């Protein structure tokens, strides 16, 4: 299989909030890189609704709509028909987690490059099986060039990458302890509550928001500490549910212990706390990671900018003695960066032509990294289910 | 035993940092309440050094010096001789934790009221035995009026009492989760490191700084949540040692679960995180407690005042939606308040005459409360010693 040429011919599979608000706008904003060929959803109505969001003056014209429901399904407009198109190089998948894994597998079997939404799977075992299938069979059959990446946009955020760099340079990677706190005030009319599959009576995602949102913030923690070889080794947690519509669980208080991924280690193992609560009255949205190192402390915070009120990333380093040394503020660029990363992998190029360079480097969107995020959340959830019993966290990067 | 009259005739037992910098100045600053009669230390030199700190114009004259070491110990100047004096009503004890418990017992047996430093004991079993001895025998023999209080000054801080009041009023006591973080950057020449008994090779205090300092901050957490009947029920932790001179352990990452003290409870039990690190490079001194409630979030922070650089308490409440509702800043008043509380208990009066009124109420200095703080720390340390295995936290208030 030779590398596709620009623009990469893409289909968008999914018509949910993120497909409409993040994926579609990003795809159509870069017509020199992506050519949006098709949009699929289970129902014609929802697929068409997304297609309507494509601007009338879109360089590549209107994408064709595919779907699997309705009385008059045209055999040429099913998902299978879409995946059989030779003029589609890649698919961007944004479906409910429980549905998504089968679609990922289908797309890979059709030889399409895949960018799929996080969490990579609804559980570790399911995810590991697909990752192994991909690595052992699907990926290799065309010379090892079939790309599957998981759209963990937080791992692509320049703010996160810069935080990792501060940790491994100013901090020498010598973490002593850390505290990750993630507070959200979730209203009953929250758009993600209303999806139905994430939380509540009809939820199909184990862990609900703690999995759906939690993988993002565990990805941040992991991206930072992994830059110096640390992996999560053991977890304990308590947790529970305050808001019925956030079932099965909307808060978790956990501890994580770190270990060097290669088995080398000092006698003392760093550990820290993880506090996630989606029932955080008084805290509309606040993510904070503090990493205390031998030589100072790294701060990473997401909160409204005090000046313009928009959500921003604040990253800074405080040296021994308490002096703030460096500080940067970042906007949200992770979605664009993850699409850029996906495109570069498909094209097998270090940089895209005619696109601004990104000085911060790129995030690792491999399915194994995404699976590791799920593994940590699953360990916390499992521990919370048995009153805090410690859970060993398997190293999904090598299993 | 009838209540002593003003001024209460007091002996100070101990010549360490806190005796010199906190207890002695507080005693001599209130000559209408306390008459400092005597100062005891193991060596004559250290006892005399403290006595020299008493101002020349002290209303009650120079206190007599007592000690138990030296070749020419006068039988009339031993600790036993001091405790036999009929003109001493009360003792303030500020000795190394491992030494202190025997002195507390001696003083109580001599019928002296006791204010002893925290931690109440070096371990739960030792502490519980003394508490029971006190309650069952010592306290009752003079009509139940012999006072023993533990000088947990943080529980007396107006800032802590006001935080408790915010929690039980604006928060209705409905805690969902909490995060307690305590970071200190401990240098090798730290005055408490140099005491030798707290940490390092010669330490006699299990848990070192995590016990010595940790009881303060667990006292804050407990004072706040106990105002609505919550007690700590279960604990898990990881921990270790980064700085040899802070041995045996200088950081701990823990989780605590709460339960209603009377056994009543909702299906969901609140839980939160506790992160204490005395090897926190870049964080000279920073204590923060966040209590997320059903109706908003309580913040309690100790940090340098941005204006004058002095250490202050900042307490505020943020209502649902994120609006800051009330906010107060407090100085450190806990030492003075704990002495006031001790004096009122001895005199059996609701307020002291000729002293300013305290609008915030008083902290509970009972040995059982102090023992409960030790119990929580011990559970965290025990769990950290066995890789995070959960520890049930016994209810020391009723055992």
Automatic annotation (TrEMBL), chains A, B:
Tree of life domain: Eukaryota
UniProt domain Gfo/Idh/MocA-like oxidoreductase N-terminal: residue ranges: 8-132
Gene3D superfamilies linked to this entry: Dihydrodipicolinate Reductase, domain 2, NAD(P)-binding Rossmann-like Domain
GO annotations of cellular component type: cytoplasm
One example GO MF annotation: nucleotide binding
InterPro entries reported for this sequence: Gfo/Idh/MocA-like_OxRdtase_N, NAD(P)-bd_dom_sf
Protein name per UniProt: Gfo/Idh/MocA-like oxidoreductase N-terminal domain-containing protein
Origin species: Spizellomyces punctatus (strain DAOM BR117)
């Amino acid at each position: 299989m030779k590398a596709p040429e620009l623009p990469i011919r893409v289909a968008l599979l999914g018509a949910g909030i993120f497909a409409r608000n993040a994926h579609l706008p990003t795809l159509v904003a870069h017509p020199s890189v992506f050519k949006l060929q098709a949009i699929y959803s289970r129902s014609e109505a929802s697929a068409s609704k997304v297609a309507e969001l494509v601007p009338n003056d879109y360089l590549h014209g209107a994408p064709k709509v595919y779907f699997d429901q309705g009385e008059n399904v045209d055999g040429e407009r099913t998902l299978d028909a879409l995946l059989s198109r030779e003029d589609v190089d890649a698919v961007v998948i944004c479906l409910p987690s429980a549905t998504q894994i089968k679609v990922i597998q289908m797309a890979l079997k059709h030889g399409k490059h895949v960018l799929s939404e996080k969490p990579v799977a609804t559980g570790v075992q399911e995810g590991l099986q697909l990752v192994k299938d991909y690595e052992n069979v699907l990926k290799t059959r065309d010379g090892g060039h079939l790309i599957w990446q998981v759209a963990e946009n937080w791992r692509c955020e320049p703010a996160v990458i810069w935080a990792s760099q501060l940790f491994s340079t100013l901090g020498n990677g010598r973490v002593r302890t850390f505290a990750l706190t993630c507070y959200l005030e979730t209203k009953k009319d929250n758009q993600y509550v209303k999806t139905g599959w994430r939380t509540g009576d009809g939820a199909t995602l184990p862990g609900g928001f703690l999995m759906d949102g939690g993988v993002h913030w565990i990805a941040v923690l992991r991206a930072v500490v992994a830059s110096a070889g640390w992996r999560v080794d053991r977890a304990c947690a308590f947790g529970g549910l305050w808001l019925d519509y956030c079932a099965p669980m909307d808060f978790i208080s956990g501890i994580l212990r770190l270990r060097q991924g290669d088995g080398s280690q000092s006698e003392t193992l760093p550990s820290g706390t993880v506090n996630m609560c989606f029932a955080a009255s008084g805290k509309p949205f606040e993510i904070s990671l503090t990493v205390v190192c031998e030589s100072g402390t790294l701060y990473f915070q997401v909160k409204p900018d005090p000046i313009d009120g928009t959500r921003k990333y604040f990253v800074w380093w405080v040296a021994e003695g308490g002096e703030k040394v460096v500080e940067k503020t970042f906007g949200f660029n992770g979605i664009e960066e993850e699409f850029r990363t996906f495109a570069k992998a498909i094209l097998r190029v270090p940089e895209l032509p005619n696109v601004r360079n990104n000085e911060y480097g790129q995030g690792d969107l491999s399915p194994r990294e995404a699976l590791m995020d799920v593994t940590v959340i699953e360990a916390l959830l499992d521990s919370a289910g048995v009153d805090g019993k410690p859970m060993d966290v398997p190293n999904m990067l090598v299993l």
